[in-house]
Design brief:
Outer membrane efflux proteins (OEP), four-stranded antiparallel beta sheet, elongated
């Protein structure tokens, strides 16, 4: 008994320095806690109001008050294949995060076996016992084992790996939300493009009809020697120019229709849009009360970029931990017997336990290279994050100011159309009274149609700029969430 206690004391004396050294190394292996990179931000966004903007309960595309637009955007969000692919990527990233977390825990397994063995008496070892009384070359072996193994994460290598996977999963989730926002915006833009081309095609058709009538009258006047050839050539040139726009508009209309079908999960030539005619939706006024800091929390692409910085920082911690030893524990409790009847007896019981250590010595610069790669990856991620912020602020600035200026332009063009409409009516009444010629009346009609075409394009551009502004501000649907970069929780935002 004293001998056993003496051996145990000797083993403790040998392992104590190793444990102490491990604790010292663990203290040295700590990596500085992650902090979000600091970025200089302007005090406010352009067109921002000092008052809090009115909270909306509906998705942003419903603020256009167009049932067809709402229908196609909702369909795109439920059927779009890009969203489906992004959702699959998120599932993969979530699985990787779960796997990384599980690797920090012990692995426990149970196995059972039953074997029949016929020994070879030609075996030099077995053959020495073949002539002994009671030797039986046929053997039965039964066993049951409970085994466990566990890598002790003393230096944080596995914890850093879990942080990498969790940050990647958070980035994938933000990217999914960003793709939903992008698809909603792209669908709205394609719908507006379709509505614009349909309206311009109808306007061009009316303009062609007006110019055809004007050309007919001028040709008669020219044939009678009343009108000069130059006047006829000008009208016919205008007519040819107007006719040349129809094929272009028809092609653009089909292109917008195909794009809309693809975005909503359909197949061109096999599916049809759920409406016959699209109308340019009236652009709502965007109320902005966000600060640049709030914008960083609202835009999914910025959240994704920040989570990539966090993942890169955790990879540096992984690379640092690779310089230190790895320790593992393993154990086994089992039963082993040559007779199944004795398997559950105390004589069949066996137990094993082991502690393992892997100490890096010489790797000819492998770990140094990995650390350098990880640090460079962090520098790249930080640069990409800052670039994404600069681009986001630029997009917000451009889109909000563009929408404001285009709204003013559309108002002026609307006044122009109203004025020319009155002039057209005056000219028509004057023609009926014989005060002006048909040419003057048709020319007033032509000028009105040209102004209406410009107004159609201006209203479509205003609606497009409004959609781009919503996208740049990170406004999402009510069923979308965003990953909080600090607690990695998903919260619902509008």
């Amino acid at each position: 008994m004293k001998h056993v206690e003496y051996n145990r004391a000797r083993r403790n004396m040998r392992t104590a320095p190793l444990i102490a050294l491990s604790l010292i190394l663990a203290a040295c292996a700590t990596h500085a806690p992650y902090e979000t990179p600091r970025v200089d931000l302007p005090p406010s966004l352009p067109m921002a109001s000092a008052e809090k903007a009115k909270e909306r309960s509906e998705p942003w595309w419903q603020t256009f008050d167009d049932p067809n637009l709402t229908k196609v955007v909702d369909q795109a969000l439920s059927e779009n294949l890009q969203i489906e692919a992004a959702a699959a990527r998120l599932q993969q990233a979530s699985g990787a995060a779960s796997l990384a977390g599980a690797q920090r825990l012990p692995e426990i397994g149970v196995d059972a076996s039953a074997a029949e063995v016929r020994q070879s008496i030609a075996d030099p070892i077995i053959g020495n016992f073949a002539d002994l009384p009671g030797f039986n070359r046929n053997q039965s072996i039964y066993g049951m084992n409970l085994a466990a193994s566990w890598e002790l994460d003393l230096f944080g290598r596995l914890a850093a790996g879990e942080r990498v996977a969790v940050a990647d999963a958070a980035s994938a989730q933000a990217q999914l939300i960003g793709i939903r926002l992008t698809i909603a915006a792209e669908t709205a833009l394609s719908y507006i493009a379709l509505a614009e081309t349909q309206a311009l095609r109808a306007n061009a058709t009316r303009r062609i009809e007006t110019l055809e009538e004007l050309a007919r009258v001028v040709r008669l006047r020219y044939e009678r020697g009343i009108a000069p050839r130059l006047e006829l050539d000008q009208v016919e040139a205008d007519l040819s120019s107007a006719r040349s726009t129809l094929p272009v508009l028809e092609a653009a209309e089909r292109s917008a229709e195909v794009r809309l079908l693809i975005l909503t999960g359909g197949t061109p030539n096999l599916d049809a849009l759920p409406f016959e005619t699209a109308l340019i939706p009236e652009a709502p006024t965007i109320e902005v009360s966000q600060t640049p800091a709030q914008l960083l929390l609202a835009r999914p692409d910025l959240v994704a970029a920040e989570r990539q910085v966090a993942a890169a920082d955790a990879r540096v911690a992984q690379a640092v931990a690779n310089y230190y030893p790895r320790f593992s524990l393993s154990g086994l409790l089992g039963l082993l017997s040559g007779d199944i009847g004795d398997l559950l007896t105390g004589d069949a019981f066996r137990a094993e336990g082991a502690i393992g250590a892997a100490v890096p010595l010489f790797d000819f610069g492998r770990r140094d290279a990995q650390l350098a790669i990880s640090e460079a990856g962090t520098a790249e991620a930080i640069a990409q994050y800052r670039l994404a912020i600069a681009q986001a602020l630029g997009e917000v600035d451009t889109s909000l100011i563009s929408a404001d200026r285009e709204r003013a332009q559309a108002k002026e063009l609307a006044r122009t159309v109203t004025t020319l409409d009155r002039a057209r009516e005056t000219s028509r009444l004057a023609y009926q009274a014989g005060a002006v010629s048909l040419i003057e009346a048709l020319d007033a009609e032509r000028l009105l149609l040209e102004a209406e075409g410009r107004l159609i394009s201006a209203r479509a551009q205003l609606s497009r700029s409004t959609v781009v502004a919503y996208r740049s501000l990170g406004v999402r649907s009510v069923d979308a969430g965003i990953v909080d970069s600090k607690n990695k929780q998903v919260t619902t935002l509008r």
